[in-house]
Write a structure and sequence with these properties.
The protein has one domain. Helices cover about 80% and strands about 0% of the residues. It contains 22 helices and 4 strands. The strands form 2 sheets. It has a two-stranded antiparallel ribbon with strand order 1-2. The protein has a two-stranded antiparallel ribbon with strand order 3-4.
């Protein structure tokens, strides 16, 4: 039975990749539209690939150096040589997932625009198909990599004749899982740089495009006269497709490995050792649950459909809910089949033996799934258009930028309460029903449907790009109305996705932390110990330092972009003349312009140097991502070897608690500022008066949104990876402490 499961797990990963390839080919066969649309789409695709090539060249050096260091410490006890190989494979899989997602997103965006010329339903189909390629690519590569490596290393490290369920078998399996931690380390490293670098890229372009284009020049968002427009659209893919994909790939892999480490402690228990699986029940369960999630996600994608005039949000919700229902039903049978009805174990945090049940493990999985959904919808409440918190920011914009920013900060701070209550409840409940293993398997439950969850997330930036292309290509208003409807839903899915990513990061980090304690042989962490307290303070400080580096990086990169856009407006004659025409005409309706004005305006088409703006964002992101990345990798190594395992445990506790708070605060504050600005663009009511784009309250909201951009798209999401990566590094070095 063990060989059947170990063969089925990578096979399900291959199934996801086959389905991904089918969807990828289908998207590629859709009509990209007229020549102008094709040219705009190609500019975005070229910019995205240029960024990935530049980023991966730098990351290749990092991967080789770290892998060499891991192999240099090779010894028989820790199998560090094989950890180095696993590290490389994890990094390659994570990078490949980002590459695939970026490729399909830059194919699907222009094809979604063209499909919107026909109907809303067809546009949704193309955008979601593109997103499903990203989602299934992540889970397929993750499960294929983990399943294949476990199958390979089990054959290498478990000697022939080893008695199933014996202490020797347990020791061998622990070595196998220790080697697998390298895969998670590689995935985490790529994820951090993808998130930080992608966040810096997208916000440098976004801030530059908005401040010079919308505020100074007075031209609409996504206007072809703006040289930063292409870089801005590239940034949507870089940050929200490749970045989000790498983030959830890391959580997906990390939660599975953390659960496997804790599950290895059950191998020698009589209830497990006497089973058909030879004690590997709890080790294999997270792999099986992840495989079930792939099947459920694939089935769920077929239910995402909408007709003209329908609600895209309802269609996406239907697919997710059906996938969740299928996953829970199949998982129940998997849990009851693989695990004993009950077993007794002495946990790390309790001296007396405790009895757990398979039903308790299933309840822990449900708690993880519910917590993920709960945090997502709480996030939507605090950031959604028209909600009470966002309306509060709109109201405060009436008195200027200062009160807008104060209100946004308050919303972000207040928004941490309910998600933390939900997380705490899930953690306590999961621990009550299944101990530390319950907390870890809850993280797997939350992430089991990553395939369809990430498909819904990636749909958002594809739809956003589609609207930008419609604007730049000058398509009829009905097209922009359809893409705007898709984009509005995309904003909601993005907010829910960010909340989901934060929740999954918290549970995954906690699972990895528990795995670290078990591997390092720590039964408790005494905060009265001065070394532990020092580690706790250092860990709590790191998210603030990390955020400062990323925020400053966005400021420097945005300044470079602003200067370049101003230069082009000043030095390119066609752009300068077209801007003067737009200022002279106080209406966007070109039908009332003079023939001379039209001739001058259209002469500027294609004259902006988009490539130079793309280069500025790319160079800035590569340059600025190094320092935050080094903080995450080097700090746990230094603390671990200088202060010991307990001080490192204090560091992880501090960075996890502080990091989760900061991530929620920054992501939600930025999202709330963003939608407050959008409410003014649609016409917002403040004290009975309607204020529109260009009004003083709208200008105050633009300032708030500009402050919030790096909050929600750079430093906030990057903190998810900081706390997971540090936990993974600690787990990798735990046998050496």
């Amino acid at each position: 039975m063990v060989s059947t499961i170990l063969t089925a797990v990578p096979a399900l990963g291959i199934l996801a990749l086959i389905f991904m390839a089918i969807r990828y080919n289908w998207v590629g066969k859709q009509d990209p539209g007229n020549p102008r649309m094709v040219r705009i789409g190609q500019n975005i695709a070229d910019g995205a690939m240029a960024f990935l090539r530049a980023e991966y060249r730098v990351l290749a050096i990092f991967v080789v150096v770290v892998a060499a260091l891991l192999m240099f410490t090779a010894d028989a006890a820790t199998s560090s040589y094989m950890i180095g190989i696993s590290f490389i494979l994890g990094a390659v899989c994570s990078a490949l997932a980002g590459f695939i997602g970026m490729r399909v997103a830059t194919k699907a965006n222009v094809r979604t625009t063209n499909a919107a010329r026909e109907s809303l339903g067809k546009a949704l189909g193309v955008a979601f198909a593109g997103g499903s390629v990203m989602g299934l690519g992540v889970v397929g590569l993750g499960l294929l990599g983990l399943g294949s490596l476990f199958l390979l290393f089990q054959g290498m490290f478990v000697p022939d004749g080893t008695v199933a369920g014996s202490a020797e078998a347990q020791f061998a399996i622990v070595r196998v899982i220790t080697v697998l931690t390298g895969f998670s380390f590689g995935a985490s490293s790529i994820a951090l740089f993808a998130r930080v670098g992608g966040g810096i890229y997208t916000k440098a372009a976004d801030v530059g495009a908005d401040l010079v284009g919308k505020v100074e020049a007075g031209i609409p968002e996504d206007h072809p006269l703006n040289p930063a427009t292409i870089a801005d659209n590239v940034g949507d893919n870089v940050g929200d497709v490749a970045g989000m994909g790498a983030d959830l790939f890391e959580s997906y892999v990390g939660s599975i490995i953390g659960t496997m480490v804790i599950g290895a402690a059950f191998i020698v228990l009589p209830e497990f050792a006497q089973s058909e699986i030879g004690g590997l029940n709890a080790v294999l369960l997270p792999l099986v649950v992840a495989g079930i999630g792939i099947v459920a996600s694939i089935i769920g994608t077929f239910f995402v459909r909408v007709g003209e005039g329908g609600d895209p949000q309802k269609a996406l919700n239907t697919g997710e809910l059906i996938a969740a229902a299928i996953m829970l039903v199949l998982t129940y049978f998997a849990v009851t089949l693989l695990l004993p009805a009950e077993w007794t174990v002495t946990t790390l945090t309790a001296e007396a033996p405790t009895t757990f049940t398979s039903l308790g493990v299933f309840i822990a999985i449900i708690l993880g799934l519910v917590a993920g959904l709960g945090i997502g919808y709480i996030t939507e409440y605090y950031t959604g258009t028209g909600t009470k918190p966002v309306q509060g920011i709109v109201d405060q914009s009436l008195t200027g930028s200062a009160t807008n920013i104060i209100a946004g900060l308050a919303v972000g701070m207040r928004s941490t309460a309910y998600p933390i209550i939900v997380l705490s409840t899930a953690i306590i409940g999961a621990y009550y029903f299944a101990g530390l293993y319950g907390i870890a398997i809850a993280a797997v439950g939350m992430l089991s449907n990553t395939g369809i969850q990430l498909a819904v997330d990636a749909y958002g930036p594809i739809s956003d790009n589609a609207g930008g292309i419609a604007e730049m290509a000058g398509l009829e208003p009905a097209v922009r109305e359809r893409t705007d409807k898709l984009d509005a839903v995309g904003n909601t899915t993005a907010a829910i996705g960010k909340g989901f990513a934060i929740g999954s990061a918290a549970l995954t980090a906690l699972a990895l932390f528990a795995a670290f304690m078990q591997t390092a042989g720590i039964t408790s962490i005494d905060i009265a110990n001065p070394y532990v307290m020092a580690g706790l303070f250092l860990g709590a400080m790191l998210p603030f330092l990390f955020s400062a580096f990323s925020m400053e990086a966005v400021g420097r990169a945005a300044n470079d972009m602003i200067q370049e856009v101003r230069r082009q407006f000043r030095e390119i004659p066609e752009l300068k003349a077209a801007l003067e025409v737009m200022r002279r005409n106080d209406t966007a309706d070109q039908a009332v312009w003079t023939d001379v004005d039209k001739e001058v305006f259209f002469a500027a088409d294609g004259k902006a140097d988009y490539q130079r703006c793309v280069e500025i964002s790319t160079q800035a992101s590569i340059r600025e991502m190094v320092m935050p990345g080094l903080i995450a990798v080097v700090t746990p190594v230094v603390i671990g070897f200088a202060g010991g395992a307990e001080m490192l445990g204090g560091l992880l506790a501090g960075v996890t608690s502080s990091g989760v708070m900061m991530a929620i605060f920054q992501s939600n504050a930025g999202g709330a500022w963003d939608n407050a600005k959008k409410m003014f663009e649609e016409g917002a009511s403040v004290q009975g008066t309607i204020y529109h784009k260009g009004s003083d309250p709208h200008k105050a909201a633009v300032v708030g949104d500009t402050v919030g951009d790096p909050f929600k798209d750079t430093s906030g999401p990057s903190l998810n990876i900081l706390l997971k990566l540090m936990s993974v590094v600690a787990l990798v070095i735990a046998p050496l402490l």
